[in-house]
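Researcher: We plan to redesign the surface later, but first we want a full-length starting point. Tokens attached.
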């Protein structure tokens, strides 16, 4: 099954000149979605991890089933102000605006190997912020994993030193 067929490019969304990768057809096709989870799980086995940290909100779509299947804790990385307890905070320049993300301060134990999961690696800035959160709490990044990667935005360059798993490769 070619999963790229389920991720069309929508031209000029959300603004002119942007080619938006739409994951909703993949989510709407149960066999394709299941296959994406299976393949991501298999690809990440090369990078042992103790916990999975996922980005709000689309990263949760792949991270939650992975956490369930592997019996690993799921650590939500949320936009600022969404977590109810003390949290570590990082800022980064997103594709469209400055973004602040948080991870509960007690989410990562010293020495934990954490798999970072999102739907897309675009500029790499959100993954890099997630890595700073994990490392700031005493963990290490096992890998940065995503359904797909947008090569033209050079996100992989911002993740130098971390293994990068891009299930559908660089689109």
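Model: Full-length starting sequence:
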């Amino acid at each position: 099954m070619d999963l790229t067929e389920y991720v069309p490019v929508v031209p000029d969304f959300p603004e002119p000149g942007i080619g938006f990768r739409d994951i909703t057809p993949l989510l709407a096709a149960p066999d394709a979605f299941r296959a994406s989870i299976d393949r991501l799980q298999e690809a990440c086995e090369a990078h042992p991890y103790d916990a999975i940290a996922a980005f709000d909100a689309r990263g949760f779509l792949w991270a939650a089933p992975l956490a369930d299947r592997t019996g690993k804790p799921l650590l939500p990385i949320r936009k600022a102000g969404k977590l109810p307890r003390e949290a570590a905070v990082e800022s980064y320049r997103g594709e469209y605006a400055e973004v602040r993300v948080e991870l509960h301060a007690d989410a990562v134990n010293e020495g934990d190997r954490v798999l970072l999961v999102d739907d897309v690696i675009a500029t790499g800035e959100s993954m890099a912020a997630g890595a700073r959160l994990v490392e700031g709490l005493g963990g290490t990044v096992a890998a940065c994993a995503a359904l797909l990667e947008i090569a033209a935005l050079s996100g992989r360059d911002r993740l130098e030193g971390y293994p990068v798993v891009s299930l559908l490769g660089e689109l």
